[in-house]
Structure of All-trans-phytoene synthase:
Amino acid sequence: MNLDLSYQAAEEVMRKNASSFYAAFKKIEHAKFLDIAAIYAFCRYADDLADTESQSEARRLQLLNLLEEDVKSLYMGSNQSDNYKKYAWWFAFENAVRLRKISLDALLEQIDGQKSDFNFEEIGDKSDLILYCKKVAGTVGLMLAPMLKGEKADERYESICEDLGIAMQITNILRDVGEDLRNRNRIYLPKSLMKKYGVTKEELENLSVVPNSFNKGYSFFKSTLEVSDKIVCLWEEIALLSDYYYDKFYSHLYMFDSDALFPVTAAAVFYQSILDEVRKNHYDCFTQRSYTSAKRKSELLKIVLRRVENVKNNIKKY
Protein backbone atom coordinates (compact mmCIF):
# COMPACT_ATOMS: atom_id res chain seq x y z
CA MET A 1 0.00 0.00 0.00
CA ASN A 2 1.31 3.42 -0.99
CA LEU A 3 1.13 6.02 1.82
CA ASP A 4 0.03 8.83 -0.51
CA LEU A 5 -2.80 6.68 -1.87
CA SER A 6 -3.87 5.81 1.66
CA TYR A 7 -4.03 9.50 2.59
CA GLN A 8 -6.04 10.13 -0.57
CA ALA A 9 -8.50 7.42 0.50
CA ALA A 10 -8.83 9.00 3.96
CA GLU A 11 -9.29 12.46 2.47
CA GLU A 12 -12.04 11.16 0.20
CA VAL A 13 -13.90 9.67 3.18
CA MET A 14 -13.85 13.07 4.88
CA ARG A 15 -14.80 14.97 1.72
CA LYS A 16 -17.83 12.74 1.10
CA ASN A 17 -19.11 12.56 4.67
CA ALA A 18 -18.20 15.92 6.22
CA SER A 19 -18.01 18.43 3.39
CA SER A 20 -18.24 21.54 5.60
CA PHE A 21 -15.53 20.37 7.98
CA TYR A 22 -13.46 19.21 5.03
CA ALA A 23 -13.58 22.66 3.43
CA ALA A 24 -12.72 24.43 6.70
CA PHE A 25 -9.85 22.17 7.79
CA LYS A 26 -8.44 22.04 4.26
CA LYS A 27 -7.06 25.52 4.93
CA ILE A 28 -4.64 24.44 7.67
CA GLU A 29 -1.10 23.16 7.11
CA HIS A 30 -1.39 20.34 4.58
CA ALA A 31 0.44 17.68 6.61
CA LYS A 32 -1.79 18.33 9.62
CA PHE A 33 -4.89 18.30 7.44
CA LEU A 34 -3.97 14.89 6.02
CA ASP A 35 -3.55 13.45 9.51
CA ILE A 36 -6.91 14.92 10.54
CA ALA A 37 -8.44 13.19 7.51
CA ALA A 38 -6.82 9.89 8.52
CA ILE A 39 -8.24 10.14 12.04
CA TYR A 40 -11.63 11.11 10.62
CA ALA A 41 -11.63 8.01 8.38
CA PHE A 42 -11.06 5.80 11.42
CA CYS A 43 -13.84 7.51 13.40
CA ARG A 44 -16.22 7.39 10.44
CA TYR A 45 -15.64 3.66 10.01
CA ALA A 46 -16.28 2.96 13.70
CA ASP A 47 -19.39 5.14 13.73
CA ASP A 48 -20.78 3.54 10.57
CA LEU A 49 -20.42 0.09 12.11
CA ALA A 50 -22.56 1.23 15.02
CA ASP A 51 -25.21 2.91 12.86
CA THR A 52 -25.52 1.15 9.51
CA GLU A 53 -28.33 -1.32 8.88
CA SER A 54 -26.65 -2.96 5.88
CA GLN A 55 -25.16 -5.73 8.05
CA SER A 56 -26.47 -7.68 11.00
CA GLU A 57 -25.84 -6.38 14.50
CA ALA A 58 -23.75 -9.46 15.31
CA ARG A 59 -21.54 -8.88 12.28
CA ARG A 60 -21.09 -5.18 13.03
CA LEU A 61 -20.12 -5.92 16.62
CA GLN A 62 -17.68 -8.53 15.36
CA LEU A 63 -16.10 -5.94 13.05
CA LEU A 64 -15.81 -3.45 15.91
CA ASN A 65 -14.06 -6.09 18.00
CA LEU A 66 -11.69 -6.76 15.09
CA LEU A 67 -11.05 -3.03 14.75
CA GLU A 68 -10.19 -2.88 18.44
CA GLU A 69 -7.66 -5.68 18.02
CA ASP A 70 -6.19 -4.00 14.95
CA VAL A 71 -5.75 -0.73 16.86
CA LYS A 72 -4.04 -2.54 19.73
CA SER A 73 -1.70 -4.19 17.23
CA LEU A 74 -0.46 -0.74 16.20
CA TYR A 75 0.85 -0.11 19.69
CA MET A 76 2.38 -3.58 19.96
CA GLY A 77 4.56 -3.01 16.90
CA SER A 78 2.88 -5.79 14.94
CA ASN A 79 3.14 -6.08 11.17
CA GLN A 80 0.31 -4.08 9.60
CA SER A 81 0.30 -5.54 6.07
CA ASP A 82 -3.05 -7.31 6.58
CA ASN A 83 -4.64 -4.08 7.79
CA TYR A 84 -3.38 -2.21 4.71
CA LYS A 85 -5.46 -4.62 2.65
CA LYS A 86 -8.47 -4.44 4.98
CA TYR A 87 -8.76 -0.64 5.23
CA ALA A 88 -7.66 1.67 2.40
CA TRP A 89 -7.00 4.45 4.95
CA TRP A 90 -5.06 2.33 7.46
CA PHE A 91 -1.51 3.18 6.32
CA ALA A 92 -2.34 6.89 6.66
CA PHE A 93 -4.00 6.26 10.02
CA GLU A 94 -0.97 4.31 11.26
CA ASN A 95 1.35 7.11 10.15
CA ALA A 96 -0.79 9.77 11.85
CA VAL A 97 -1.03 7.78 15.10
CA ARG A 98 2.73 7.26 15.27
CA LEU A 99 3.75 10.74 14.10
CA ARG A 100 1.29 12.64 16.32
CA LYS A 101 1.60 10.24 19.28
CA ILE A 102 -2.15 9.80 19.52
CA SER A 103 -3.33 8.15 22.72
CA LEU A 104 -4.31 4.48 22.56
CA ASP A 105 -6.87 5.15 25.29
CA ALA A 106 -8.69 7.69 23.11
CA LEU A 107 -8.89 5.24 20.20
CA LEU A 108 -10.14 2.39 22.37
CA GLU A 109 -12.66 4.61 24.16
CA GLN A 110 -14.07 5.67 20.79
CA ILE A 111 -14.62 2.02 19.87
CA ASP A 112 -16.04 1.27 23.32
CA GLY A 113 -18.47 4.16 22.92
CA GLN A 114 -19.70 2.75 19.61
CA LYS A 115 -20.02 -0.71 21.18
CA SER A 116 -22.19 0.71 23.96
CA ASP A 117 -24.92 1.34 21.40
CA PHE A 118 -25.24 -2.42 20.86
CA ASN A 119 -25.96 -3.11 24.53
CA PHE A 120 -27.66 0.20 25.07
CA GLU A 121 -28.43 1.23 28.61
CA GLU A 122 -30.72 4.20 29.11
CA ILE A 123 -29.02 7.42 30.15
CA GLY A 124 -29.69 7.78 33.86
CA ASP A 125 -28.67 11.36 34.58
CA LYS A 126 -26.51 14.21 33.30
CA SER A 127 -23.28 12.53 34.38
CA ASP A 128 -24.22 9.43 32.35
CA LEU A 129 -24.97 11.65 29.36
CA ILE A 130 -21.60 13.39 29.63
CA LEU A 131 -19.79 10.05 29.95
CA TYR A 132 -21.48 8.71 26.82
CA CYS A 133 -20.67 11.90 24.89
CA LYS A 134 -17.05 11.75 26.06
CA LYS A 135 -16.68 8.26 24.66
CA VAL A 136 -18.25 8.76 21.24
CA ALA A 137 -17.27 12.39 20.59
CA GLY A 138 -14.94 13.74 23.26
CA THR A 139 -12.42 11.14 22.15
CA VAL A 140 -12.49 12.61 18.64
CA GLY A 141 -11.35 15.92 20.12
CA LEU A 142 -8.53 14.14 21.96
CA MET A 143 -7.40 12.42 18.76
CA LEU A 144 -7.35 15.67 16.78
CA ALA A 145 -5.71 17.68 19.58
CA PRO A 146 -2.08 17.12 18.47
CA MET A 147 -2.77 18.60 15.01
CA LEU A 148 -4.51 21.69 16.39
CA LYS A 149 -2.27 22.59 19.33
CA GLY A 150 -0.84 26.09 19.62
CA GLU A 151 2.05 27.59 21.57
CA LYS A 152 -0.23 28.83 24.35
CA ALA A 153 -1.70 25.40 25.10
CA ASP A 154 -1.31 24.25 28.70
CA GLU A 155 -2.32 21.21 30.74
CA ARG A 156 -6.02 22.02 30.17
CA TYR A 157 -5.75 21.89 26.38
CA GLU A 158 -6.78 18.28 25.79
CA SER A 159 -9.76 18.71 28.10
CA ILE A 160 -10.86 21.72 26.03
CA CYS A 161 -10.69 19.66 22.83
CA GLU A 162 -12.77 17.01 24.58
CA ASP A 163 -15.30 19.66 25.66
CA LEU A 164 -16.04 20.62 22.06
CA GLY A 165 -16.76 16.99 21.20
CA ILE A 166 -19.13 16.70 24.16
CA ALA A 167 -20.96 19.90 23.18
CA MET A 168 -21.40 18.70 19.60
CA GLN A 169 -22.66 15.26 20.64
CA ILE A 170 -25.26 16.76 22.97
CA THR A 171 -26.32 18.93 20.02
CA ASN A 172 -26.71 15.77 17.91
CA ILE A 173 -28.87 14.18 20.60
CA LEU A 174 -31.13 17.24 20.87
CA ARG A 175 -31.47 17.41 17.08
CA ASP A 176 -32.25 13.71 16.55
CA VAL A 177 -34.66 12.71 19.34
CA GLY A 178 -37.29 11.34 16.94
CA GLU A 179 -34.80 9.76 14.56
CA ASP A 180 -33.10 7.88 17.40
CA LEU A 181 -36.47 6.59 18.60
CA ARG A 182 -37.72 5.54 15.16
CA ASN A 183 -34.53 3.96 13.88
CA ARG A 184 -32.96 2.59 17.06
CA ASN A 185 -35.65 2.65 19.74
CA ARG A 186 -33.26 4.68 21.89
CA ILE A 187 -33.64 7.74 24.06
CA TYR A 188 -30.48 9.63 24.97
CA LEU A 189 -32.31 12.17 27.14
CA PRO A 190 -31.49 11.50 30.82
CA LYS A 191 -34.21 9.58 32.68
CA SER A 192 -33.78 11.80 35.73
CA LEU A 193 -34.65 14.90 33.69
CA MET A 194 -37.57 13.18 31.97
CA LYS A 195 -38.93 12.33 35.41
CA LYS A 196 -38.29 15.88 36.63
CA TYR A 197 -40.45 17.33 33.85
CA GLY A 198 -42.99 14.50 33.76
CA VAL A 199 -42.08 13.39 30.22
CA THR A 200 -42.68 9.74 29.29
CA LYS A 201 -41.20 7.56 26.58
CA GLU A 202 -44.69 7.07 25.16
CA GLU A 203 -45.11 10.82 24.68
CA LEU A 204 -41.81 11.01 22.81
CA GLU A 205 -42.73 8.00 20.67
CA ASN A 206 -46.09 9.54 19.74
CA LEU A 207 -44.37 12.75 18.66
CA SER A 208 -41.86 10.78 16.58
CA VAL A 209 -44.44 9.20 14.26
CA VAL A 210 -44.22 10.66 10.76
CA PRO A 211 -46.64 10.38 7.80
CA ASN A 212 -45.99 7.68 5.21
CA SER A 213 -45.38 10.36 2.61
CA PHE A 214 -42.51 11.72 4.70
CA ASN A 215 -41.04 8.25 5.11
CA LYS A 216 -41.00 7.97 1.33
CA GLY A 217 -38.97 11.14 1.15
CA TYR A 218 -41.58 13.49 -0.29
CA SER A 219 -40.29 17.02 0.08
CA PHE A 220 -43.68 18.67 0.61
CA PHE A 221 -44.00 17.36 4.17
CA LYS A 222 -44.26 20.23 6.62
CA SER A 223 -44.39 19.65 10.33
CA THR A 224 -47.37 20.94 12.29
CA LEU A 225 -46.22 19.23 15.46
CA GLU A 226 -47.14 20.81 18.77
CA VAL A 227 -44.49 20.15 21.40
CA SER A 228 -45.63 20.56 25.00
CA ASP A 229 -44.07 23.09 27.36
CA LYS A 230 -42.70 20.36 29.62
CA ILE A 231 -40.79 18.80 26.72
CA VAL A 232 -39.48 22.23 25.72
CA CYS A 233 -38.24 22.74 29.29
CA LEU A 234 -36.57 19.32 29.26
CA TRP A 235 -34.93 20.07 25.92
CA GLU A 236 -33.74 23.51 27.06
CA GLU A 237 -32.14 22.19 30.24
CA ILE A 238 -30.06 19.78 28.18
CA ALA A 239 -29.30 22.58 25.69
CA LEU A 240 -27.90 24.61 28.60
CA LEU A 241 -25.49 21.75 29.28
CA SER A 242 -24.39 21.80 25.65
CA ASP A 243 -23.90 25.59 25.77
CA TYR A 244 -21.80 25.21 28.92
CA TYR A 245 -19.30 23.05 27.03
CA TYR A 246 -19.32 25.34 23.98
CA ASP A 247 -18.59 28.31 26.25
CA LYS A 248 -15.70 26.49 27.93
CA PHE A 249 -14.27 25.83 24.50
CA TYR A 250 -14.68 29.44 23.31
CA SER A 251 -12.92 30.79 26.40
CA HIS A 252 -9.80 28.78 25.55
CA LEU A 253 -9.51 29.41 21.82
CA TYR A 254 -6.10 30.98 22.37
CA MET A 255 -4.69 27.49 22.97
CA PHE A 256 -5.16 26.52 19.32
CA ASP A 257 -2.62 27.03 16.57
CA SER A 258 -3.21 30.11 14.42
CA ASP A 259 -4.06 28.10 11.29
CA ALA A 260 -6.48 25.89 13.25
CA LEU A 261 -8.25 28.78 14.94
CA PHE A 262 -10.70 29.53 12.14
CA PRO A 263 -11.82 25.95 11.36
CA VAL A 264 -12.34 24.92 15.01
CA THR A 265 -14.22 28.14 15.77
CA ALA A 266 -16.37 27.81 12.65
CA ALA A 267 -17.11 24.17 13.48
CA ALA A 268 -18.29 25.14 16.97
CA VAL A 269 -20.34 28.19 15.94
CA PHE A 270 -22.03 26.44 13.02
CA TYR A 271 -22.84 23.35 15.06
CA GLN A 272 -24.12 25.26 18.07
CA SER A 273 -26.47 27.15 15.77
CA ILE A 274 -28.33 23.88 15.11
CA LEU A 275 -29.90 24.37 18.54
CA ASP A 276 -31.39 27.68 17.38
CA GLU A 277 -32.66 25.99 14.23
CA VAL A 278 -34.54 23.46 16.38
CA ARG A 279 -36.08 26.37 18.28
CA LYS A 280 -37.09 28.03 14.99
CA ASN A 281 -38.77 24.75 14.03
CA HIS A 282 -40.87 24.99 17.21
CA TYR A 283 -38.78 22.30 18.93
CA ASP A 284 -39.69 19.67 16.37
CA CYS A 285 -36.70 17.40 16.86
CA PHE A 286 -39.07 14.49 16.30
CA THR A 287 -40.21 14.48 12.66
CA GLN A 288 -37.55 16.60 10.97
CA ARG A 289 -33.81 17.17 11.18
CA SER A 290 -32.80 20.77 11.75
CA TYR A 291 -29.63 22.04 10.11
CA THR A 292 -27.73 25.27 9.58
CA SER A 293 -28.33 26.48 6.04
CA ALA A 294 -25.63 27.92 3.80
CA LYS A 295 -27.30 31.33 4.10
CA ARG A 296 -27.25 31.15 7.89
CA LYS A 297 -23.62 30.00 7.87
CA SER A 298 -22.69 33.05 5.82
CA GLU A 299 -24.36 35.22 8.48
CA LEU A 300 -22.61 33.35 11.30
CA LEU A 301 -19.29 33.81 9.54
CA LYS A 302 -19.16 37.34 10.96
CA ILE A 303 -19.31 35.92 14.49
CA VAL A 304 -16.60 33.39 13.66
CA LEU A 305 -14.27 36.02 12.20
CA ARG A 306 -14.90 38.35 15.14
CA ARG A 307 -14.00 35.62 17.65
CA VAL A 308 -10.88 34.67 15.70
CA GLU A 309 -9.75 38.28 15.33
CA ASN A 310 -10.31 38.93 19.02
CA VAL A 311 -8.12 35.97 20.00
CA LYS A 312 -5.34 36.98 17.61
CA ASN A 313 -5.39 40.59 18.82
CA ASN A 314 -5.18 39.55 22.46
CA ILE A 315 -2.91 36.51 22.20
CA LYS A 316 -0.11 38.20 24.18
CA LYS A 317 -2.42 38.58 27.18
CA TYR A 318 -2.82 34.85 27.64
Q: What stands out?
A: The first helix runs from residue 3 to 17. Confidence is low (pLDDT under 50) at residues 216-220. Residues 5 and 109 are 28 Å apart (CA to CA).
